[in-house]
Amino acid sequence: MQNCAPTQTPDVDIPALREKYLAERDKRLRPEGQKQYLEADNEFAEFYEGDPHMPVVPRQPITDDIEVVILGGGFCGLIAAHRLQQAGVTDFRIVELGGDFGGVWYWNRYPGIQIDSDAYCYLPLLEETGYMPKEKYSKGDECFEHAQRIGKHFGLYDNAIFHTLIRSLEWDDEIDRWQIRTNRGDEIRARFVVMAQGPYNRPKLPGIPGITDFKGHTFHTARWDYDYTGGDLHGGLDKIADKKIAIIGTGSSGVQAIPHLAQGAKHLTVFQRTPSYIFERANYPTDPEWVESLEPGWRAARQRNFHNAAFAFYNPGEPDLICDGWTEVARNMAAKLNETNGWAALADPAKFMELKEIEDYRSMERLRRRVDEIVEDPETAEKLKPYYRNMCKRPVFNDEYLPTFNRPNVTLVDVSGTKGVERITEKGIIVDGVEHEFDCIVFASGFEITTALERQFDIAPFAGREGTSLYDHWGKGFRTLHGIMAHGFPNHFATGFVQGGVTASTTLMFEQQADHIAYIIKEAQTRGATVVEPTAEAEEDWIQTVRTYSVDNSTFTTECTPGYYNSEGEPSGRSFLGDPFWGGFYELTELLENWRSTGKLEGLVLEK
Ligand code: NAP
Predict the structure, then answer these.
(1) Span from the CA of 318 to the centroid of ligand 1 (angstroms)
(2) Nearest CA owner, ligand 1 atom 4
(3) Average pLDDT over residues 415-433
């Protein structure tokens, strides 16, 4: 594997840059915050519910009584299913909107799609399925195939209902089950419900005036239309050579698709509100010798090392095993501490933050200079430079994106001054009062992540005991036990970013949650209980525990340029990480394991 040296970063004038960052933020802040986005429902429902990858086969509605329904067949749902199987719970169904397993990797097949973080850490159940990723950053099809591999390996296809969207979830006290209705007319009564919908499941659209007026073609990156563009996720878009294409959005999805659109289209216009910060991709194939050298447990050690870089810090002498843009700031900081023999300074948290901030500013300046080195036109280069701190937005890794702006058939339009694209018309997009005509507009506008939960879940009603809505219960913030169960919502299990632990590999977080869920369901069954629910006191205790460890990072987030990472700059917005237990991811694992090891199910009430 590669040698992981610190990067060479330039000196910076931090106070001057801070001023610049704030000015760039202010330019983009919109009073509507999250509400600037349109939901993919009603006239826009196809942007979410339509499947361009596989025809939906008609079927009869299902009426069913079952033990467990897992909502979602992405990695989270697959991990939950695997853990239930391990616990001996086999009477479950996975209900999935897509036509196969994979979740985001089923839906997102836009050209250039590739993991942006270490595949050896991210792809789940590697040792269990005997699979090793082909390269450090897997392409989208490898991820999708791995989801299928998990499905086949553990025999999960027989448990799945595809092309099915859960519309409502209602707890029924009479039968101690959840009544579940779907878009296919199914009526399923499940004892337990595991929510594995994933954090990035539902596309959203920019609320641009005139969006419905456009008479040309449109689609969202998460529902790529290859019938229109030709090609596949590796590129080769051979049907758009005579087309003028516009793309709105330059986040992770936009950046990956843009080089391929540019290669295929007659002309590509990129509408950019905020530039992404682009690290070198520097992908490499998996080294067989390295694989040969791995000892059992290698993956857990690698994930912990990644966690240390992103959410804690290295121990003196600890190498950076990940060695990419995610770990650059921590790696550079550790190198300086080694040089100066300065590790003792980290005992002071304020000093730690100060040192980290310096490396953050230096690393971002390195990336701005990289833009100058690659992009030939200085004006275009300037527009492509990110002026905000590392982790204000999702880091992006790409070697083809910046050179794309040297192509004669590509135009970059900076719409930061108007806080986004001003207007869409029948024929195209208005820029500075001038209408530009396009054949197609691609929306790379992201997902319902920190918008209202009603929008993200798209399930209504979502009602617990006495018809109480989960959206009301969590209306003023999450209320859970262990980030998983909520009082008034018996037999219901949440996953993802709620009130749990966060780590650099999302799939590891799903594993932590699935272990806990499988244990509770199995215990309830073994003890003959039909209902398991946290008490109000246990829920309140967990909220207090979470508060005890809470970290005030509001200065950092409010100073960031808007995006979903900071709830579009809404000061009281929901963090994309939920309301995490900042006591530490591994500390939470230990806490949950200890809780389970007593066998007391403390804080839960069981009913027969
Ligand atoms: P995103 O990061 O939310 O980006 C949305 C883009 O649309 C932003 O550039 C945004 O500009 C722009 N936009 C929104 N409204 C606009 C308007 N009115 N006018 C002009 N531009 C507008 O969405 P995404 O790129 O799909 O990524 C979402 C997340 O999914 C990522 O952060 C990542 O976590 C995940 N993802 C991962 C991968 C991977 O691992 N390979 C790939 C794709 C996505 P502003 O920045 O100014 O808001």
Answers:
(1) 34
(2) 251
(3) 94
Angle value at C-alpha 259, between 257 and 260, nearest 5 degrees: 65
Position in ligand 1 atom list of the atom nearest CA 137: 41
Distance 250 CA to ligand 1 centre (A): 6
Q: Output the six-digit token pair for 65.
A: 């009584």
DSSP secondary structure letter of residue 414: E
Residue type, 285: P
Half-sphere exposure of 410 (CA within 13 A, CB side): 23
> CA Rg, the chain, in Å?
24
Name the closest-CA residue to atom 14, ligand 1. 445
507 lines ligand 1 (CB under 6 A): no
Q: Determine which residue's CA is closest to atom 2 belonging to ligand 1.
A: 251
Q: Hunting for tokens 């942007």 — which residue is that?
A: 47
Would you state the pLDDT for residue 3? 65
Domains in the chain with CATH codes: 63-202+449-607 (3.50.50.60), 205-281+377-383+391-443 (3.50.50.60)
With a CB cutoff of 8 Å and minimum separation 6, the contacts of 274 are: 28, 250, 386, 388, 393, 416, 561, 562, 563
For residue 260, pLDDT beyond 70: yes
DSSP assignment of 230-243 equals -SBTTB--TT-TT-
Q: Nearest to residue 508, comparing CAs of 105, 126, 92?
A: 126
To which residue do tokens 């090609």 refer? 231
Q: Tell me: the pLDDT tens digits for 462-485?
A: 999 999 999 999 999 999 999 999
Q: Which of the listed residues 273, 423, 455 should we mutate to test ligand 1's pocket, taking the one with most ligand atoms within 8 A of CB?
A: 273
Q: Which of 113, 413, 445 to mutate to test the pocket of ligand 1 (most atoms within 8 A of CB)?
A: 445
| Residues facing residue 236 across a β-bridge | none
Both tokens assigned to 145: 């195939």
Nearest alpha carbon, ligand 1 atom 34: 394
Rounded to the nearest whole angstrom, what is the distance from the C-alpha of residue 221 to the centroid of ligand 1?
10
Question: Is the CB of 447 inside a 6 Å radius of any atom of ligand 1?
Answer: yes
Q: Which of 248, 242, 215 is nearest to 228 (CA)?
A: 242
- The token pair that represents 133 in the structure block: 């990723």
The CB of 446 under 6 Å from ligand 1? The reply is: yes
Q: Are 83 and 209 in contact (CB under 8 A)?
A: no
Residue 280's pLDDT band (cuts 50, 70, 90): very high
Angle between helical axes of 14-28 and 349-374 (0-180°, round to 10): 70
Q: Is 200 in the pocket of ligand 1 (CB under 6 A)?
A: yes
C-alpha 516/C-alpha 116 separation (Å) is 28
CB burial readout 20-30, b (16+ within 10 A) else e: ebbebbebbee
- Indicate which atom in ligand 1 lies nearest the CA of residue 562: 48
Q: What is the 3-state secondary structure (H, E, C) of 293-318?
A: HCCCCHHHHHHHHHHHHHHCCCCCCC
Residue nearest to atom 6 of ligand 1 (CA): 249
Q: 423 pLDDT exceeds 70?
A: yes
547: amino acid identity, one letter: R
